[in-house]
Amino acid sequence: MRDLWAFATHLYAQAGIEEACLAWQESGGDVCLLLCCAYLEQRQVALQPERLALLQQHAAAWQSQWQAPLRSLRVQSKTWAAQTAEQNGLREQLKALELASERLLLEQLAALTSDWPPTTAPAPWLSALGASSALVALLREKL
Q: 8-22, 69-83, 106-120: lowest mean pLDDT where?
């Protein structure tokens, strides 16, 4: 089985997924957590409320401490970065740092779930996360 980062980048590159994930993010959703839940669902890992809560707590802490500030700086710098090549270069570094932070979060989520075995029962992680039925259907179609 591919690791979570490889799974996430492969899924994210599928037609329509990036746009759907960004819309999920704009509505307050956590894309890394969403991709992790898609991974767990695809692996048929048993959904248990305490497992989902653990992932949500970990992701929320990471998002508030790292992702949200980096994303805010990147978004705020858009107009500023257009003024000079040097400023744009700095914004590109912010984008790379934001992506590195997302990768690290996915690695941490993968570590938390590494000993969760698959099951033969349905594992509706995406629905339990609260993703819309349209987003769930799109992700499941691409799994």
A: 69-83
Q: Comparing C-alpha atoms, which of 39, 13, 11 is closest to residue 129?
A: 39
Whether the pTM exceeds 0.85: the reply is: yes
Nearest to 117 by CA among 55, 49, 45: 45
What share of the chain has pLDDT > 70, as a percent?
A: 99
Tell me which residue of 14, 10, 61 sits closest to 33, measured CA to CA.
61
Best CA proximity match to 67, nearest among 25, 39, 128, 17: 25
Closest CA to 74 of 95, 89, 100: 95
**Residues 138, 142: Cα–Cα separation, whole Å:** 6
User: b/e per residue, 80-118, with b = 16+ CB within 10 A?
Assistant: ebeeeeeeeeebeebeeebeebbeebbebbbeebeeeee
